[in-house]
Design a protein that fits this description.
heterodimer; A: about 240 residues; alpha+beta; Ribosomal Protein S5, domain 2; five-stranded mixed β-sheet; four-stranded antiparallel β-sheet; B: about 260 residues; elongated
Chain lengths: ~240, ~260
C-alpha cells in the first residue's frame, strides 16, 4: 500500500541531519523528518548551580523541549506547556542511559531542543538531534539514541507519521478509528528501548509488530547519525 | 525517604529470590479499597487505598464552548495535585514534572479508550458542551501512586452524575440522577523492574530503588486493546522484557477489574 505522500509503510521521510549548526553551543545538531525539524544545542558538562542540586556521584542531565510559536498552524503561546514538560522529561529519561554521566560529578549537561517546523513525530526528531548534539559536544557516550514514531492507520502499521496521517480517521465497524501513535527510541548498541509511549487503540500482537518495525527504522537512523558524525572534521573540546 | 544502601541490598536480595519485605509475591497487589461518593460538593468522587497509599479523586462538571476542532464533543481535563500533605517530597507551588506526567497518563488512558463518550456530552453543536474535570489528590504516598490515581479517576467518573442545568448555566448543588455516558472495563496498571525481576504495586522503598517502570492503559470489551503506554525510569528495557511486561499487565488488569467493584 502506498501512503498519502507516496512512501512505503516501512519508509521514514527524507532525513536531514547536520551537526555544528549553533557555533556558540558546546555541541549542536539539526535533525529533520521531512517537515518536522528540530534544532538542539548542548551546553556542558559544566558546573551545576545552585550548589545544592549538585550530585557528587554523577552529572545531571536536563532536557528542554519546546515548539516554536510559529511551528504549528495556530500560533502557540511561547513558553512551557504540560505537553512540553512531559516530553522534556521522557527525553531526559531516553538519553540518560546512553551518556557516561558518572564521568562528571557535580556537573550538568543542558540539552535544549527547539522545534522550528512541526509535522508530527517532533519528539523523535528532537531525540535524534539531541543524540547527535551530545556526541558533537564530545560528551562521552556508550551509544547513540535513535527514535522514530510508528503508527497504526486503519489496519496498516507505518513508520514516521506525518500530521496528516496522525489526524487521519477511518470508520471501522461503525466506530470512528483514530491513528495510534507509538514513539519509540532504541539504543544503538545494546538495542534496548529507552522511550516507549503510545496513545490510541491496538492489540498486543500488533504492538509487538510495531516495535519490530520501529527497531528496524531506528537502526537505519543510527547509521545515518553515525555517518553524520563521521563527516565532522574536528570534534569540539 | 532516603533508602539506605543496606535496606536496598536487602530488598534486592529478597526480590532475586522472589520474595518481598512485606511477604507478598512479586506480582501481588496490596489490598485495594475503592470507596465512592466521598465528598458532597463534587459531582463524583472516590477514595482509593492500596495498602497505605491513599488517593482521592473528584469530578466536577461545567458548561463551556466546545474546542474548535471538536465542535460536537464535550471536553476532558485531568489534573494531578501533589499537595504537600501526602509526602515529604511534595512541595507547594506549580505542578512538578511527576504530577504533569501522571495527569497526562491518566488523560491518555481515559481519552484514548473512549471511556467517556464525549459526543454525548454535546448539548448544542459548536456552542455548548459539558466539560469534565478530574482532579486527583494523593493523600498518602506509600508507593504506586500511578495505579491508585488511575483507579481513583475511573471510580470517580463512575460515581459522577450530571448537575442540574438551566439553559447554559449549571445549578451547582442540585444533582440529577443521570450518570455520565461511560464505557466499561478500562484500567491502567504499572509494572516495575527491580533487579532482574518485575513487580507490581511497589511500596515507597521498592519504588525508590526500582530502575524502570511501564504503565499500560487497556480496555477489555469484545477484545483486549492497549490504549496508552508510558515507559518511565532510568533503565532502558530489552524488547523481550517489554513484551513480557505487557502480557503480564494485560493479564493482571483483567484480574483486578474482576476483583474490585469499580
Amino acid at each position: 500500500m502506498k501512503r498519502l505522500d507516496g512512501r512505503s509503510n516501512e519508509e521514514f521521510r527524507t532525513v536531514e541531519a547536520r551537526v555544528d549548526v549553533v557555533s556558540r553551543a558546546d555541541g549542536s545538531a539539526l535533525f529533520a523528518f521531512g517537515n518536522s525539524k528540530a534544532i538542539v544545542s548542548v551546553y556542558g558538562p559544566r558546573q551545576l548551580y545552585p550548589q545544592h542540586l549538585q550530585n557528587p556521584e554523577r552529572c545531571l542531565l536536563r532536557c528542554y523541549y519546546d515548539l516554536a510559536s510559529f511551528s504549528v498552524p495556530e500560533r502557540k503561546r511561547p513558553g512551557p506547556t504540560r505537553r512540553s514538560i512531559e516530553i522534556s522529561y521522557v527525553m531526559t529519561k531516553a538519553l540518560e542511559p546512553a551518556i557516561k554521566l558518572e564521568a562528571f560529578p557535580n556537573s550538568v549537561i543542558d540539552v535544549y531542543a527547539l522545534i522550528i517546523d512541526s509535522d508530527a513525530s517532533t519528539r523523535c526528531a528532537a531525540l535524534n538531534a539531541a543524540s547527535l548534539a551530545l556526541a558533537n559536544a564530545g560528551v562521552p557516550m556508550r551509544e547513540l539514541v535513535s527514535a522514530v514514531s510508528v503508527g497504526k492507520l486503519g489496519n496498516e502499521l507505518v513508520v514516521d507519521l506525518t500530521k496528516e496521517e496522525e489526524d487521519f480517521k477511518v470508520i471501522k465497524e461503525g466506530e470512528e478509528q483514530k491513528t495510534t501513535d507509538i514513539p519509540i527510541a532504541f539504543l544503538s548498541r545494546s538495542k534496548k528501548i529507552s522511550l516507549l509511549q503510545l496513545d490510541g487503540k491496538i492489540s498486543a500482537e500488533e504492538l509487538f509488530k510495531a516495535i519490530e518495525l520501529g527497531k528496524k527504522a531506528c537502526l537505519k537512523i543510527s547509521k545515518i547519525q553515525e555517518r553524520t558524525l563521521k563527516k565532522i572534521k574536528n570534534i569540539k573540546k | 525517604m532516603e533508602v539506605t544502601n543496606l535496606t536496598k541490598k536487602r530488598i534486592e536480595e529478597l526480590i532475586a529470590r522472589n520474595k518481598r519485605l512485606d511477604g507478598r509475591s512479586l506480582l501481588e497487589f496490596r489490598k485495594i479499597f475503592v470507596e465512592k461518593g466521598v465528598t458532597k460538593k463534587a459531582e463524583g468522587s472516590a477514595r482509593v487505598r492500596i495498602g497505605n497509599t491513599e488517593v482521592i479523586a473528584g469530578v466536577k462538571l461545567n458548561l463551556t464552548e466546545p474546542f474548535q476542532d471538536t465542535p460536537d464533543e464535550g471536553a476532558l481535563a485531568v489534573n494531578v495535585e501533589f499537595f504537600p500533605i501526602g509526602s515529604e517530597k511534595f512541595e507547594p507551588g506549580p505542578p512538578s514534572v511527576e504530577a504533569v506526567e501522571l495527569a497526562r497518563i491518566i488523560d491518555r488512558i481515559i481519552r484514548e479508550s473512549h471511556f467517556i463518550n464525549l459526543k454525548k456530552l454535546c448539548i448544542k453543536k459548536g456552542e455548548l458542551v459539558w466539560m469534565v474535570f478530574i482532579d486527583v489528590y494523593p493523600i498518602n504516598d506509600d508507593g504506586n501512586l500511578i495505579d491508585a490515581s488511575i483507579i481513583a479517576s475511573i471510580a470517580a467518573l463512575k460515581d459522577a452524575v450530571f448537575p442540574a442545568r438551566e439553559e447554559d448555566k449549571v445549578k451547582y448543588g442540585e444533582l440529577t440522577k443521570q450518570r455520565l455516558p461511560l464505557n466499561d472495563s478500562v484500567i491502567g496498571l504499572t509494572l516495575y523492574k527491580l533487579g532482574q525481576k518485575f513487580i507490581f504495586d511497589p511500596t515507597t522503598i521498592e519504588e525508590e530503588i526500582s530502575q524502570a517502570r511501564i504503565t499500560v492503559g487497556m480496555s477489555y470489551r469484545k477484545k483486549e486493546f492497549i490504549h496508552a503506554i508510558q515507559k518511565g525510569g532510568e533503565t532502558p528495557l530489552r524488547e523481550e522484557e517489554i513484551k513480557e511486561a505487557i502480557k503480564i499487565i494485560i493479564k493482571k488488569g483483567k484480574e483486578i477489574l474482576n476483583k474490585i467493584n469499580l
